[in-house]
Write a structure and sequence with these properties.
disordered N terminus; 4 helices; alpha+beta; binds 2-acetamido-2-deoxy-beta-D-glucopyranose
Length: 227
């Protein structure tokens, strides 16, 4: 089904069919000039290893929505700032989701806050933790509304704030493990189901930032809300 849908995306563009948000999980960026690796600089990228389906409840797919959802799944995330106690936490990274917008910087970046909103991103940067960048597939040629996440688990700052060995797989599985099932935050009830997808990312380390190999899996999360 997914193959059929993704195969139809360029066709829909060619014949100017409106592609409605909410009708597909996502469009494969690889089929339309995009990439499942973002641009982390130096010709390397972080894998987009989690996708929040465009079929999720629309409120989950907004900027406020993804922040509330991230808080609901129990890792206690906070929006990242670029600096913490004089430590530069890194520059924005861009991704090309094959939606006609080309390379676009991350919409938002979240870091685990260890339960302390004031110190949170600083703590994550000092002791390491789960971390993700968000990209929205909403350009004219692939308007799924899906959110593509580059998820990783980072080292502490003494290790120069890089990714732990196997940190892309570990970060993804940690986030997904927290996400599945039922969660609540700020009056919103979430129900999340997960499905692993192969074939979007090649397994291995070719082109991957820090040369960290991945298993090539992308996990698709579909999130429904009730109030
Ligand atoms: C991303 O943001 C940085 C810093 O603001 C900027 O220099 C860069 O041009 C941006 N990249 C893209 C693709 O918009
Ligand atoms: C961190 O970076 C500094 C300065 O570039 C370097 O001297 C040090 O060896 C690096 N530490 C690790 C653990 O890579
Ligand atoms: C996806 O793959 C990971 C890594 O092999 C595994 O731990 C996880 O249980 C899988 N999830 C689903 C929904 O199949």
């Amino acid at each position: 089904m997914l193959t059929v849908i993704t195969a139809l995306a360029p066709l829909a563009l060619a014949i100017q069919l409106p592609i409605q948000s909410g009708s597909v999980d996502f469009y494969d960026p690889n089929l339309n000039g995009g990439s499942m690796l973002n641009n982390a600089g130096g010709g390397l990228g972080e894998p987009l290893n989690v996708i929040i389906s465009g079929k999720s409840s629309p409120e989950v797919l907004t900027n406020d929505g993804i922040v509330n959802y991230a808080r609901a799944i129990g890792l206690s995330y906070i929006i990242s700032s670029e600096e913490c106690l004089g430590i530069h936490l890194g520059d924005p990274q861009s991704a090309n989701l094959g939606d006609g917008h080309g390379w676009v910087n991350q919409t938002i970046e979240l870091r685990e806050d260890y339960g302390n909103e004031e110190l949170g991103t600083c703590l994550e940067s000092i002791i390491g933790g789960n971390h993700f960048r968000v990209y929205r597939q909403d350009g004219p040629s692939a308007m799924s509304g899906a959110l593509f996440l580059a998820v990783s688990r980072e080292q502490d700052v003494e290790e120069n704030h890089t990714i732990v060995p196997d940190g892309y797989n570990i970060g993804r599985d940690q986030l997904v493990g927290h996400a599945i099932g039922k969660h609540d935050f700020d009056g919103v009830h979430y129900k999340t189901v997960a499905k692993n997808i192969t074939g979007l990312l090649p397994p291995g380390s070719v082109g991957v930032n820090h040369g960290i190999a991945t298993d090539g899996l992308t996990t698709l999360l579909t999130v429904q809300t009730t109030r």
